[in-house]
Amino acid sequence: MISDELKELIRPVVLVQRIIWFVIAGSIIFYIGFVYFFIGENKALAISVGGYVEPLIYILAGASVLGSILYYRYSLSESRLSQFMDPDTDLRSMAVNPRTKEVDQAKLDRLNALSDHEAKIYSLMFELQKITIVVLILNELTAIFGSVLAFVYDDAQKIIPFAIASLVLSFWMFPRHLSLIKRVQSL
Fold first, then answer.
1. Cα separation of 11 and 46, whole Å?
2. CA 139/CA 68 separation, integer angstroms
3. φ, ψ for residue 106, nearest 5 deg
4. Who contacts 163 (Cβ-Cβ below 8 Å, separation ≥6)?
5. In this structure, is the dihedral angle defined by the CA atoms of residues 34, 168, 65 and 26, taken in order, positive or negative?
């Protein structure tokens, strides 16, 4: 299990990850509503394009989905986590206030109270935040491709498979910090 001190230190990081997740996952639902609201029965939005656009959008969306899955799996693989946990953790750099660029002595004292393993876990939470942002952007890109296709072909139904794929990936990739901590502790 993790110490109360570590729980207290990672709480803001986890909160930011969850806010980012909810905002981006919520935007996918917004795309669906936006497409249905603006296209609806309005056929004037249709754009005259060749037959190459739809396959191209499917290829781009597929690449986005594949990229999201591969990056997520690689970033949270046992070998990558082991690699991340090996180097020394620079507590001083983690205690720097991003606004003032000065070391927050109170935070540094709290970080110094952690064991070496817990300090690495704390720094891992920032890595999880980066991973979360990248995969959510790729997932959202999938829904955006569906929105483009719906507008190009003036068919609101075209967004549905893209949005479903995007939401399924986003729910699968929801940041689960406690399970990640347990995995890292078992390495």
1. 47
2. 7
3. -65, -40
4. 28, 29, 31, 32, 143, 146
5. positive
What residues pair up with 103 in beta bridges, in sequence order?
96
Ranges 35-39, 82-86, 108-112, 138-142: which has the least confidence? 35-39
Averaged pLDDT of the chain: 82
Confidence of residue 153 (pLDDT cuts 50, 70, 90): confident
Characterize 114-127 residue by residue with b for buried, 16 or more Cβ atoms within 10 angstroms of its Cβ, and e for exposed: beeebbbbbbbbee
Distance separating the N- and C-terminal Cα atoms of the chain: 14
Beta strands in the chain (DSSP E): none
The amino acid present at 176, given as its one-letter code, is: R
Does the pLDDT of residue 52 top 80, yes or no?
no
Q: How many residues does the chain have?
A: 187
